[in-house]
Write a structure and sequence with these properties.
By secondary structure, this protein is an alpha+beta fold. Helix content is 26%, strand content 26%. The chain has two domains: 120 residues, D-amino Acid Aminotransferase, Chain A, domain 1, CATH 3.30.470.10; 159 residues, D-amino Acid Aminotransferase, Chain A, domain 2.
């Protein structure tokens, strides 16, 4: 789905017009993939527009940079205010938010340390990642021939742009073979994750998910689902998952900011359960929707966005997010 432009993107302390948000072709990130990013959703809840787990996402971004010996130019709290203002200023009721930190124009050696660290935050309208009916009908998935990156090659726990070259191969392969998505195994042949989602398996009423040692990204929605499951009295086991469990499972589903909670109805052509959304998957979806649709927030996960300003020629940018000083 092509991006639908909005008026503004925030770049390095100021708002610029969507089509003016540009970088130099010789920026380090273009040649070596030196970027770190987050995907965050804002929802139109019954209580107004709210960003889901904003602080947790930005803390993960900060940790991703740390793994690559890079310092965030702004504090997490400053970027929280930026994200809220990007949504507000663009008048978005629900959207996908993309904060990204990257190495800019400086030199073109592999060593990135002399290149400046740049920061941008964009937001746009984006619907269901795996299709409009994915949450109710499920998706068809294959096990990819591409393995997940090993943890001693580059940190899989970092949400780094370069990591997603691996994810691209998984997604391309799955779509070329007629599937909606692919699941990678780790270097030991155990289940890792989808191209952009964490994986959950339900067997005999127990919820299984791969551990961090399986080269997965520590997903924010993954943590959300584990929290819900434990509150619902559903046993949760984080352990190595052999490929065979995917075919024997009673239920399978993906989690992720883009995918939310998406049932898997078949794996390599093998129907999961009876081919419909399973009872545990549905219970967890309902818990999730109570937060992001109804605005129930006993966890403090929602950051509410003030109403958008009236558009006038003299409207000014909010000073608290345009005059931030880099650290």
């Amino acid at each position: 789905m092509p991006l639908k432009p909005v008026p503004y993107i925030w770049m390095n302390g100021r708002f610029v017009r969507w089509h003016q948000a540009k970088i130099h072709v010789l920026s380090h990130v273009v040649h070596y993939g030196s970027s770190w990013f987050e995907g965050i959703r804002a929802y139109k809840t019954r209580r107004g527009t709210a960003i889901f787990r904003l602080h947790d996402h930005l803390r993960r971004l900060e940790r991703s940079l740390r793994m690559y010996h890079t310092e965030m130019p702004y504090t997490v709290e400053e970027l929280e205010r930026v994200c809220v203002e990007v949504v507000r200023r663009n008048g978005l009721e629900q959207c996908y938010i993309r904060p990204i930190v990257y190495r800019g124009y400086g030199n073109l050696g592999v060593n990135p340390m002399d290149c400046p660290v740049e920061v941008a935050v964009a937001a746009w309208e984006w619907g269901a990642y795996l299709g409009s009916e994915a949450a109710t009908r499920g998706v068809d998935v294959c096990v990819s021939s591409w393995q997940r990156i090993a943890s001693n090659t580059m940190p899989a726990m970092a949400k780094a742009g370069g990591n997603y070259l691996n994810s691209q191969l998984v997604r391309i392969e799955s779509m070329r073979h007629g599937y909606d998505e692919g699941i990678s195994l780790d270097i030991f042949g155990m289940v890792s994750e989808g191209s952009g989602e964490n994986v959950f398996v339900v067997m005999d009423g127990v919820l299984y998910t791969p551990p961090l040692s399986a080269s997965i990204l520590p997903g924010v929605t993954r943590h959300t689902v584990i929290t819900f499951a434990r509150e619902e009295g559903i046993p949760v086991v984080e352990s190595s998952i052999p490929r065979g469990m995917l075919y024997a499972a009673d239920e399978l589903f993906f989690t992720g900011t883009a995918a939310e909670i998406t049932p898997i109805r078949s794996i390599d052509g093998v129907v999961v359960g009876n081919g419909s959304v399973g009872p545990i998957t549905r219970r967890l979806q309902e818990r999730f929707y109570r937060v992001v649709r109804d605005g129930e927030d006993p966890y403090g996960w929602l950051t509410f966005v003030p109403p958008a300003p009236r558009r006038t020629r003299t409207a000014r940018m909010a000073p608290e997010v345009t005059n931030l000083r880099r650290r």
